[in-house]
Amino acid sequence: MSLKADTVLFEDKFNVKISDFSTTEDVDSFVAKRLGKDELKIVSLEQNIVTIQGCVFPRTDIDIDTVFEKALKK
Questions:
Q1: CA–CA separation, 11 vs 38, rounded Å?
Q2: Distance (Å, whole) CA 27 – CA 5
């Protein structure tokens, strides 16, 4: 779903204009008050599954020239 569609759904559900909010915290506070719940808590994710860059697999540095030379020698 696109961001525009998400915004329209939010505006329809809460009968507000997204342009009335200037920060994510404003939206969070509004939704929390409207739903009668606590505001969102931001927590640190453990890095054992996904790295900070969002990659599931660990990055490795590869010298492509060496790999290419070894492949040619075979």
A1: 21
A2: 16
* Structure token digits, residue 8: 């329209």
Map out the domains of the chain as residue ranges.
Answer: 3-73
Residue 39 and residue 49 in contact, taking contact as beta carbons nearer than 8 Å: no
Tens of each residue's pLDDT in the chain, 74 residues: 455 666 788 888 889 998 899 988 888 889 888 888 877 776 665 555 555 555 666 667 788 888 888 888 86
Rounded to whole angstroms, how far apart are CA atoms 48 and 29?
31
Q: Is the pTM of this model over 0.85?
A: no
Long-range Cβ pairs for the range 61-69 (8 Å, 24+): none
d(CA 73, CA 20): 65
